[in-house]
Amino acid sequence: MIKLVAIDLDGTLLTSEKEISTRNKEVLAQAKVAGVKVVLCTGRPLAAIEGYLETLGLCDDGDYSITFNGGLVQKNDTGEIIEKNLMPLEDIHILHELAKTLNVPLDILSDGTVLQLPVSEDHISLYSQLNNLLTFEPVELAQMTTDRIYNKAVVAIDEEYLDEQIKKIPSEFYERYEVIKTRSNLLEFMPKGITKAYGISLLAKDLGIKQEEIMTIGDEENDLPMIEYAGLGVAMENAVASVKALADVITDTNDNDGVAKAVEKFVLEPLKGGN
């Protein structure tokens, strides 16, 4: 039986209009009532998903989210961090130099604040357009101190230019960091080994849930580790080819209640059969 469902947001739970459909909301509510842990698993900070958590009724004691692509595991009701893995200031300096070399903007996520570094004079960051619920703060590299939290670094820029610059990233960066596109125009750098699967595994251990009792649902490259990790990995019909190839099953698209259909079939129906 599935006891935990970890769900990506963009392209998965959310429609193309960035909304949660009525059917998805109702089915996930049924899963929660049945005792299944419904966990949003996202690259965003908690502050950027609070509205979705409220819509889903996931703000009670015992509700959790995986944020920053597995960097944090948090309680939804209080924001308390129960598991974390952060990026040291040294890495910010290294990634700043890379951004200068590639002539791309660089934003650093620090909890719910986005620290905007003035790296490229030719290209401005698009990150504020992608996450307008966050607080944005221009900052100089020299102002960044070791006592501040740094979760991840992102490059948000035109897709075509981004793809060209990605080709120029030296191999050693892939050895040192998790480097992955989470959207067509967004590249993220995380500490090595920090993935959605990592965050889910920590939460599962804390809750006493086995790997085979976990279902994950996603659509993008950053969902690959959790799709592979779970007892049942589900890809959206609109997922990228690599995710669909790795998944155990493929559900409908994000605009056709794919999450609800997967949860009904693989979570709720088996529970009814067990009664």
UniProtKB/TrEMBL annotation:
PROSITE patterns: COF_1. GO terms for molecular function: magnesium ion binding; phosphatase activity. Coiled coil: none annotated. GO terms for cellular component: cytosol. Pfam families: Hydrolase_3. NCBIfam families: Cof-subfamily (TIGR00099), HAD-SF-IIB (TIGR01484). This is Haloacid dehalogenase. It comes from Enterococcus termitis.
